[in-house]
Write a structure and sequence with these properties.
The complex is a heterodimer. Chain A has helices at residues 16-26, 52-61, 82-92, 120-129, and strands at 2-11, 31-38, 42-49, 66-77, 97-103, 110-117. By secondary structure, chain A is α+β, with helices and mostly antiparallel strands. In chain A, strands 2-3-1-4-6-5 form a 6-stranded antiparallel β-sheet. In chain A, a hairpin with a 6-residue loop joins strand 5 (97-103) and strand 6 (110-117). In chain A, helix 3 (82-92) packs across helix 4. In chain B, the strands form 5 sheets. In chain B, strands 4-3-5-6-7-8-9-14-13 form a 9-stranded mixed β-sheet, sandwiched between helices. Chain B has a 4-stranded antiparallel β-sheet with strand order 10-11-12-15. Chain B has a 4-stranded mixed β-sheet with strand order 20-19-18-21. The chains are: A alpha+beta, B alpha/beta. Chain A binds chain B through residues 5, 7, 9-11, 16, 37, 39, 41-42, 44, 46, 60, 63-67, 69, 98-99, 116, and chain B through 193, 376-378, 381-386, 388-389, 410-416.
Chain lengths: 145, 433
Amino acid sequence: MNVTQLSAFVANKPGHLQRVLRVLADENINIITLTIAETSDFGILRMIVNEPDRGYKALKDNNITCSTTDVLALEIDDTPGSLFNALDAFAQMELNIEYMYAFTEKRDGKAVMIFRFEDIESAKNALKEKGYNILRKIDIIGEDK
Amino acid sequence: MYSRDIETMPEKKMKELQLERLKWSVRHAYDNVPFYKKKYDEAGFHPDQLKSLDDMRRVPFLTKQDMRDNYPYGLFAVPLNKVVRVHASSGTTGNATVVGYTKNDVEVFAEVVARSLSAYGATENDIIQVAYGYGLFTGGLGLHYGSEKLGAITVPVSGGNTPRQLMLFKDFGTTVFCSTPSYALNIADYIEKNMPDYRIEDTKLRIGVFGAEPWTEAMRNEIEKRLKIDAYDIYGLSEVIGPGVSCECSEKSGLHVFEDHFYVEIINPETGEVLPEGEEGEIVYTSLTKEAFPGIRYRSRDITRLYHDGCKCGRTLVKMDKVSGRSDDMLIIRGVNIFPSQVETVLMEIEGTEPHYQIIVDRQGSLDDIEVMVEVNEKIFSDEIKVMNTLSKKINDKFRSVLGINAKVTLVEPQTIPRSEGKAVRVVDRRNK
């Protein structure tokens, strides 16, 4: 399924990441998972949060450059080889993964992979052809189970 | 046109008027300022030798250093009790220099600013908000007196306090706004970030008068688009009089010099040799009517060219190009001459980048390094590193192809580069420090 990722531009300097986190904390927005891609000058903070639209507005109001993007969330078994099998679908369709990250916390025997594609719909079709059920809504926001 | 007779005077007649006034002005300086007498005597020049405009090339130059050496009143040509006002330059590139005005000088200053405002289409029916700093800087009081002379309602708000500027646009029905161009953009940014409900279209603002910093065509387009106004350049230097030495007209291409008060020449900045009309070089000013502070062949360090193009506005006054940079601001990086305005032009050509930039020059060992900091806004931000790297590379490639320099492009967070409410700090030079 599609989930909304919130991304922010952060200078690669002490205290700057914290500034972004403070804005989200003050707005009571919860970060479910995150990853940072870094260069020597700056980093791009990518986050799955419980309220991406409100998070976006809060960051923007605080002069933090940010954006929201649709990414693909896929639930896989938390067992050896399952990620390998999932990626097979993309490789066969020659779909390039721009970047990906994962989270396993609080999920019984399952992991959630987050993928960024140029064309998210093609990626979903590739999974369907491989027999993955991606229509099931994965409850990753406000986890209660 | 505010002074039609002067502004449309045939070239030949203007030259006669200039010669007549030059003779007075050079003699006035020679007779009343010991500095000029000493300098001219040493150079073997005497005001009696001035028989044609061509003879001006024999007159020694006046430099900014001469003004500093004679701080504060050493170059005044009238007794101090005839001086009614002083201004001092902002000292952007060194110690302040002091200039004085008699009652007549203040009158001339107001007149040339009124002519400029009129050239932009302003009339006595306008409400002119002056957001230049009021003080020793000539911008605030210069525009103020010019606006009053024109008969417009003059709003002396001075610089800074952006929310109040915006409130006055609405409450007072401001139609003309005067400030530095970087402050105009600062205002546009402020509206976008802090006042999403403020609609500039709902104000009566129609004309912007911008000067005191070099600015580019790209910046004009940006200001016009975002503030929904016609933006015009007003040019001047406190050493000559202040804003109103020259102004743009309806054509927005080149600035007409008020030649009845200022005689202009273009010289080769290396050799001091006078260049023919149309060639680019340093512009040199001679005051024709100033009493308190005559400036004879003042070397401005501003790079431009002079030309007559039969301007459609009807003015016959000589035109100068928009000043691309002050030779003092010029950076020499690994032997390449670069003006900050060129960096701005390159940045503005790249979709989405804003003219908020800062150039940092440093020396690593024996080599100069140039770093250009560019703020990342939402238009150019991507969640993918490769897109951001492509942007840096694109800017770097442009610098290399257009300016011939290899600049390190650093993408920085918004608001990292200090915003100006006066002159923007575009260059930080860490060499020799």
